[in-house]
Amino acid sequence: MRLDLWLPMYRDICREFGYDMDADARNAAALSAMLSSRHGPTLSALESACPSSVTVCGDGPMLRRCLSEHPPEGYVIAADGATTALMDAGLVPDAIVTDLDGAVEHQLEANARGSLVFAHAHGDNARAVEEFVPRFKGTIVGTCQGRPAGVLLNLGGFTDGDRAACIFSGLGARRIVLMGFDFESPSPKQSRSAEVKARKLRWARRILASLAEQGVTVEGL
To answer: DSSP character for 144?
Structure first.
């Protein structure tokens, strides 16, 4: 997603949820500093390697059944916690998009086995960024929510799942297949309010719909 389309959404999201844009910017700067010496892939390299069609696996309650009945083919992206289900099914995702609040040990293992990781900084995960980012030994790219600076990218997206779709459509994929997404009954997580998660998923659906309006084929929305 183009930055001029994303930033107004970002500001609306911050107003709705009470997010601190200054805290977002501080953690983004910290992540950029961590990654500045890693010599990660350039934007042009990421664009050149991006396939035209990708499958994004969300961490919904039906994901494991979906993986069992219809294993994804082609380029597979795990949205944060979906990494665990994919690894348990014997599938190492090609890429992981994460804000580091899932089972990060599985993401570290997948990264060591070749998964490209997009690690996201926002105002609420500074401790996770500090703890986990140095432990990724494979290829890692940093992303942020506000105007990007340093080595970070911002191709749009709010939750890990819709951010994955935004990142890869921004890199050039024209077909996004969603697997394991449930916008009505998300997987429960102790650290989050069900009501807040429902509101986040409404935004995720809106963002994915905006990609479709921009000419990207989004299947499973």
So the answer is: E
